[in-house]
C-alpha cells in the first residue's frame, strides 16, 4: 500500500508518513503515567492529539490495561441526566474491553455488564463503585484515556463525572481507582465552568484542578520532519536536500503537525505537472514549499474555519492580533489575560521570550490576509481605494514575468501621498503599514507570497519579506524617529540583507516631519544598495 501524508484524521505508520513518536511516548509514560498522574493534553485543533493517544495506548500495553475512549461516540442525548450517561459510559467501556487482549476481561467488566442490563443503581456514585471494584481486581493497573472531551464540556453531568474522578484520585491510597487518567481536547478542562456558568464566583472553579501540568512538546522539530522525509525519500528517491527542505517547512509551520503534513501532501500529490514542476525532484524544493504555502493560504480547511470563527467569537483576541500585526504592539505573555489565554489554548499564539507571538508564519499570513480582506470589503472608501489603484496599475510592476519592486515603491509613495497626504501623524502611524500591505497584496497575489519577519517586528520597525518566482525582496517599514535613527535603520537593513544573501533592499519611512522630503532615492551602505522611500 502506498503511504501518504495524512491531514484528515489520526495517523498510522503503516499507511501514513509521520514523525517518530518514540521519544515523546517514552517521556509521557515515565514522567506521567508511571507516576500515576492525571493530566490533560490540551492542544489546538489538528495538533496530533488523537494520533498520540492511540500510539500511547499501544505503548502502554505491556505494563497497563488501557481503556481508550472517544467521547464523540457518546451522543448529546447521553448527557441528558446521570442515569443515561452512566449506561452510555458503561457500554463504551464494555465495548473497548472486547478489543483488549487480556485474560479475564469478561469477568473483570461483569459488574458493568450487569449495571447496563438491569441498572438498579445507575447513579454516578454507583458507577464509580463498580469501576473501583474493577480496578481492584485488575491484573494490571488501569489507565483511562478520553479523547474529544470538548464534546462533553457543556454538560453538568460531565462536570459531575470529573468531580467523581477527582474524589477517587484524592482517596486513591484507600480506595482503588484508575492508575492514571488522560483527557484530550482543545479547551482546557480546568476552565470548563467558564462554559457553564456566567457568574464570576464560579468562572474558574473546575473539579479538574488535580491535573498535572503537561509539558511534553507535541510540535515537530526540524529534525523530526527530516526523519519523516528520510522515509519518503527512501521510497521515491527524489534527490531532495532533506535537511534544507525540513528546515524550510519548519520555518513556515513552527512544527504545527497538520500544517507540516499539508505542505508535504501538496508537494507529493498535487504539485507535479504544474509549470516548473515536471517531477518530484522539482517539487521537493524551496520553490515547491512556496507553492504549497500559497495553496494552503487560500484553502478552506477545518483548522482555518475554526480560526475565523474564534476571531468572530472573541473580539478582544481579534483586536489583540490586529494591534500586533499592523501597529507592532507588544503584549507580555500572561495567561491570566483572557484573550492571551484563549489564543494560546487554541494554538494561535505562543510565548516567545515573555512576549505574545503568532504561533507560526502560516497563521500570521492567514491572519494578515483575513484582516486585509475585511478592510477591502468593509473599510472606508479610502482604504479600498489604495488597493484598487494597485490593481489598476499592476501591469506597471511586472516585466518579463518578474516583479519590479523599485516601481512598486515609487508608485506607492505617489499613491499614498495623493490619498493620505493630509492625514495627521496619529492616523498614519496607526494605519500606514496596513496601507502598504493593502497596496502590495494585489500586485503579488496569485504569484508571490509575503510574510513579516517576526524577530524585527515592533512598534517602530517591521520587515516584509516578499517571495516572487524564486526572487526575494526585503522591505523595511519604519516610523521616522530622526536622522540618527534612520541611519541606524539603514545599517540594520544592510546587515539583514547579508543574512538573506541579498545585495539590494528597500526602506519605507512614514515621516511626520512637516519639512520632510517625500520621494524615492537610492543610497549605498557598504556593498549594499538601499532604495529609500519616504511618505
How is the topology of this model organized?
Elements: H1 22-33, E1 38-42, H2 49-59, E2 65-70, H3 82-97, H4 105-108, H5 110-117, H6 124-137, E3 142-147, H7 156-170, E4 180-185, H8 193-196, H9 222-236, H10 242-253, H11 257-269, H12 280-283, H13 286-298, H14 302-313, H15 315-327, H16 338-346, E5 349-352, E6 355-358, H17 361-378, H18 381-392, E7 398-399, E8 402-403, H19 405-420, H20 425-444, E9 448-452, E10 461-468, E11 471-479, H21 483-499, E12 504-510, E13 519-525, E14 528-534
Parallel strand pairs: 1-4, 2-3, 3-4, 11-12, 12-14
Antiparallel strand pairs: 5-6, 7-8, 9-10, 10-11, 13-14
Helix pairs in contact: 1-2, 3-5, 9-10, 11-13, 13-17, 14-15, 15-16, 18-19, 18-20, 19-20
Short description:
The protein is 48% helix and 15% strand. With 535 residues, the protein is of the alpha/beta class. Mean pLDDT is 89; it is low at 194-204.
Descriptive account of the structure:
It contains 21 helices and 14 strands. Helix 9 packs across helix 10 (242-253), helix 11 (257-269) crosses helix 13 and helix 15 crosses helix 16 (338-346). It is an alpha/beta fold and 535 residues long. A 6-stranded mixed beta sheet has the order 9-10-11-12-14-13. The protein has a 4-stranded parallel beta sheet with strand order 1-4-3-2. It is 48% helix and 15% strand. It has 4 domains: 22-202, Rossmann fold (3-Layer(aba) Sandwich), CATH 3.40.50; 222-298; 302-358, no CATH class; 379-534, no CATH class.
Amino acid at each position: 500500500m502506498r503511504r501518504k501524508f495524512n491531514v484528515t484524521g489520526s495517523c498510522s505508520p503503516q499507511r501514513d508518513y509521520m514523525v517518530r513518536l518514540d521519544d515523546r511516548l517514552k517521556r509521557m509514560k515515565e514522567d506521567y503515567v508511571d507516576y500515576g498522574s492525571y493530566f490533560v493534553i490540551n492542544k489546538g485543533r489538528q495538533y496530533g492529539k488523537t494520533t498520540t493517544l492511540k500510539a500511547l495506548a499501544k505503548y502502554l500495553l505491556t505494563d497497563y490495561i488501557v481503556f481508550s475512549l472517544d467521547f464523540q461516540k457518546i451522543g448529546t442525548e447521553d448527557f441528558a441526566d446521570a442515569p443515561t450517561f452512566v449506561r452510555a459510559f458503561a457500554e463504551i467501556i464494555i465495548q473497548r474491553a472486547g478489543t483488549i487482549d487480556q485474560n479475564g476481561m469478561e469477568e473483570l467488566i461483569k459488574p458493568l455488564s450487569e449495571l447496563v442490563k438491569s441498572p438498579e443503581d445507575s447513579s454516578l456514585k454507583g458507577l464509580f463503585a463498580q469501576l473501583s471494584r474493577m480496578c481492584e481486581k485488575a491484573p494490571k493497573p488501569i489507565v483511562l484515556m478520553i479523547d474529544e472531551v470538548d464534546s462533553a464540556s457543556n454538560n453538568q453531568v460531565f462536570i459531575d463525572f470529573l468531580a467523581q474522578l477527582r474524589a477517587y484520585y484524592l482517596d486513591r491510597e484507600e480506595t482503588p481507582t484508575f492508575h492514571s487518567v488522560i483527557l484530550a481536547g482543545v479547551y482546557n478542562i480546568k476552565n470548563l465552568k467558564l462554559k457553564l456558568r456566567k457568574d464570576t464566583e464560579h468562572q474558574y472553579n473546575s473539579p479538574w484542578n488535580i491535573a498535572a501540568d503537561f509539558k511534553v512538546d507535541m510540535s515537530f522539530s526540524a529534525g523530526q520532519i527530516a526523519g519523516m522525509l528520510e522515509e519518503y525519500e527512501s521510497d521515491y528517491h527524489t534527490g531532495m536536500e532533506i535537511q534544507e527542505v525540513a528546515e524550510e517547512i519548519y520555518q513556515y509551520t513552527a512544527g504545527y503537525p497538520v500544517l507540516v503534513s499539508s505542505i508535504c501532501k501538496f508537494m507529493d500529490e498535487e504539485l507535479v505537472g504544474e509549470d516548473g514542476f515536471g517531477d518530484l525532484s522539482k517539487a521537493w524544493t524551496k520553490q515547491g514549499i512556496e507553492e504549497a504555502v500559497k495553496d494552503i493560504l487560500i484553502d478552506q480547511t477545518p483548522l482555518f474555519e475554526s480560526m475565523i470563527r474564534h476571531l468572530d467569537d472573541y473580539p478582544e483576541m481579534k483586536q489583540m492580533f490586529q494591534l500586533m500585526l499592523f501597529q507592532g504592539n507588544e503584549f507580555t505573555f500572561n495567561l491570566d489575560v483572557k484573550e492571551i489565554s484563549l489564543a494560546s489554548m487554541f494554538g494561535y499564539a505562543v510565548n516567545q521570550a515573555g512576549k505574545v507571538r503568532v504561533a507560526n508564519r502560516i497563521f500570521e499570513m492567514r491572519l494578515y490576509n483575513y484582516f486585509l480582506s475585511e478592510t477591502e470589503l468593509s473599510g472606508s472608501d479610502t482604504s479600498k481605494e489604495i488597493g484598487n489603484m494597485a490593481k489598476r496599475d499592476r501591469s506597471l510592476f511586472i516585466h518579463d514575468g518578474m516583479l519590479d519592486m523599485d516601481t512598486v515603491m515609487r508608485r506607492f509613495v505617489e499613491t499614498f501621498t495623493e490619498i493620505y497626504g493630509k492625514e495627521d501623524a496619529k492616523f498614519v502611524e496607526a494605519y500606514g503599514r496596513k496601507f502598504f500591505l493593502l497596496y502590495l497584496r494585489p500586485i503579488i497575489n496569485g504569484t508571490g507570497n509575503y510574510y513579516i519577519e517576526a524577530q524585527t517586528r515592533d512598534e517602530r520597525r517591521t520587515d516584509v519579506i516578499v517571495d516572487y518566482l524564486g526572487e526575494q525582496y526585503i522591505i523595511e517599514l519604519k516610523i521616522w524617529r530622526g536622522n540618527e535613527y534612520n541611519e541606524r535603520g539603514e545599517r540594520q537593513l544592510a546587515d539583514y540583507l547579508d543574512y538573506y544573501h541579498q545585495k539590494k533592499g528597500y526602506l519605507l519611512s512614514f515621516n511626520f516631519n512637516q519639512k520632510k522630503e517625500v520621494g524615492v532615492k537610492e543610497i549605498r551602505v557598504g556593498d549594499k544598495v538601499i532604495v529609500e522611500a519616504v511618505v
